[in-house]
Amino acid sequence: MINIYLVRHGKTMFNTIGRAQGWSDTPLTADGELGVTELGIGFKEKKIKFDRAYSSDSGRTIQTMGFVLKYSDNENIPYKFDKRIREWCFGSFDGGYDGELFDGVLPRIFAEKGKSGKIRSYEEIAEAIYEVDTAGWAETWEELSGRIMTGFHDIAAESEKVAAKNIVIVSHGMTIGTFIKLLRPDLPRAYGLDNGSVTHLTYENGNFTVGEVGDMSYRKLGQNYLKHEK
């Protein structure tokens, strides 16, 4: 059985000013770097040794992984990038303000279709973004959900093949939320996962089991350690 520590990347410039990052990219802020330093220290304090590391190919996840591996004393382990676990692509809205897309454009689309209420499924949101994207970059729900599921499954299967016990994966907020919802449709939508949070999963014989979603205890442990060090 593999223990999977699925991390949302550290806080970035776009996260801070409320922009939809998607496939566009900005670096971690100073606070973001501190947060994932805390996370790495938290892993170290828990004496977690990783066998393998994976992230999307986005700069913010790569930067996050560097801090996590360094401060958890897990450097020099096998590390791979996988573009299938990137964030959603928001098409022509990539880099735009969250409010413009999620509180403006999408509600208008749903209203035009006669759909009331604010809570929408990931599938409805994905299809609405695809519909209004003028650049032709956004993914259909089938493309989006398919690449997320196969990406995480292939990572886990590869790790199982080499008898890994603990792996760390750095991905993105909506991608992680989508993956959890695909695995466990009965769970509430994991909206607003904190930067540097950890979602626990296990994998065995082709099956995932979902544990705690959005766990901040590792960061808090690292934060307490740094306070005492000062």
UniProtKB/TrEMBL annotation:
SUPFAM superfamilies: Phosphoglycerate mutase-like (SSF53254). CDD domains: HP_PGM_like. Gene3D superfamilies: Phosphoglycerate mutase-like (3.40.50.1240). Coiled coil: none annotated. It comes from the Bacteria. This is Histidine phosphatase family protein. The lineage of its organism: Bacteria, Bacillati, Bacillota, Bacilli, Lactobacillales.
